[in-house]
Amino acid sequence: MTSVVMEEIPDRVSLAVDISNCRGNCVGCHSPFLKQDVGEELTAEIIDRLVADNFGVNCFLFLGEGQDPQAILFLAAHVRELGLDVALYSGREEVEDEFWEAFDYLKLGPYRPECGPLNKRTTNQRLYHHGKDITERFWKR
Ligand code: SF4
Q1: What is the DSSP letter of 34?
Q2: Closest Cα to residue 57, out of 16, 102, 8?
Q3: What atom of ligand 1 comes closest to residue 110's alpha carbon?
Q4: Is the CB of 105 within 6 Å of ligand 1?
Q5: Ligand 1 in reach of 63 Cβ (< 6 A)
Q6: For residue 60, what pLDDT band results from cuts at 50, 70 and 90?
Q7: How is the chain split into domains, by residue range?
Q8: How confident is the model at residue 7 (pLDDT cuts 50, 70, 90)?
Q9: Which of 50, 71, 121, 125 has the fewest Cβ atoms within 10 Å of its own Cβ atom?
Q10: Tell me, what DSSP letter sits at residue 49?
Q11: CA dihedral of 118, 119, 124, 130, whole degrees rounded to 10
Q12: Residue 24: CB within 6 Å of ligand 1?
């Protein structure tokens, strides 16, 4: 599923795409269908089409990273070649150095219902911009 979203990444108009095959195991997972191998394989050509069809977006947001790190890193590099920022919502606590380099925005941490999402001060999740924790941007609203 794709959608254009304003609030997930601060100051960006993001084209958000659900990525299936999630390797996470969050208690209270909000999207259990994403744990399965569903939907169409995302390719560079599909990204080109999505970006062309959504004029004005300046960030491409991967909602999940699947189970093929090289594939998602390849697609992230492709997004950068298009001149867009690239963001990843990962359910993992930590990611490899290549991910820090490949993505302008990284959201880390599994979803824990008792802690709440990013806009709750009690959240365990963090959003980083080029390695800087900007989670508090969500708390001023
Ligand atoms: S990261 Fe967690 S909440 Fe998101 S789809 Fe995977 S298991 Fe569910």
Answers
A1: G
A2: 16
A3: 2
A4: no
A5: no
A6: very high
A7: 2-138
A8: confident
A9: 121
A10: H
A11: 50
A12: yes
